[in-house]
Amino acid sequence: MNNNYHIGTVGQPWTTAEKAQWLSEQKIKRSFFNDVLPIIEGLDAYFDIEQYGELNYDPICGKVYPLYAVKSRNWQYDKPTVLITGGVHGYETSGVHGALRFLQTSAVAYSSQLNILVLPCISPWGYETINRWTPAAVDPNRSFGSDGKALEAQQVRQYLTSLKQRFALHIDLHETTDSDNSEFGPATAARDGKENENWSIPDGFYLAADTERPSPAFHKAIIDSVARVTHIAEADENGELIDEKIQQFGVVSCPNASMGLCASVSDAPLVSTTEVYPDSPRTTPEQCIQAQLAAIEGALNYLLQQSSADIS
Q1: Set 92, 128, 152, 275: catalytic member
Q2: Is 275 a catalytic residue?
Q3: What does the alpha-carbon distance between residue 130 and residue 29 come to, in Å, rounded to a whole number?
Q4: Given Cys at both, which of 98, 124, 206, 271 links 32, Cβ 3.0 to 4.6 Å?
C-alpha cells in the first residue's frame, strides 16, 4: 500500500480530519487576480465577457473567485460553436495561458466563421495554490458527471446547460507534470486508501481522445499542428503512453463520461484533451503555451475544413 504520503493511515481513506490537515498545508503561491483576471477583463473590446459563477472561498483563504466565460461577439446560431476550456486543474499553467493566448491572438479571426466560447480558468484557487484539487480535496476533472462534487465543475455544467447550445467541438487544455508522480498521485492514493502506482510520464505533447468519440483524423490534425512548435511524445517500448495503448501517434484514449472528465461536458462530436509536458528539458513555458495555441488552431482548422467539405 502507499506509505510514501505524509497524511493519513496506510490503507484507510481520509476522514474529515485528514482532509482538513491537507487543506491547512495549501498556500497561495501566485495570483489569479494579477495573472489571469486582468487579461480576461482586457478582452472586452472584442468579446462578450460573462460571469457564470463564483467560488466563495473566503473562509478558506479570504477570497471570492469570479468565474468567467469569454464569448465571440455577434453570436449566430447557424454557425458551428466551439468550446475551449482551460484550468480545470489549476496547477496546469499552460492550459490557462494557452486559452488566454488564443483569445489575445487568433480568436477574433476565427469568430467570423465560428461561435467561440472560452472558459479559461475553471479552478482559480487551484491556479493560485498550484494544485490539482479543490479545497475539499476533490479532483474537478473527475466531477463533470451529474453526481460530481466539485463546485468548479458543477458551475460549468449549469452554465453550459443554461445556454441550450449544441457544440461542434470541445478541446480541453491540460498538462502532465512530474508532480503528478511526486505529489498528486501519492496524495490521491492516500486519500482513497489505495495503493499508489506511479505512471511513466511521457516526454512531449500528447492527446487523450474519448473512447466513445474517437475521431482519428481530427486528432491527427491537432498533432500535426502542434508538431510545428514542439515535440510529440513517443510511445514507450510497450506501445503505450501513460500506461495506455496508443491509438495513433501521440494519441491515447479513455472513457470521458464514465471518468467524469471535463471533455464529457458537451455532446460535441469532435472532442479532445491536450496534455503538455512542461517539465521536459526540451521545452520552455512559452513553448508550452504555443503548443496549446497550436492545438486549438489545429482543431478549429480541421472543423472549418470539414464544414467547407460538407457545403461543397
Answers
A1: 275
A2: yes
A3: 7
A4: 124
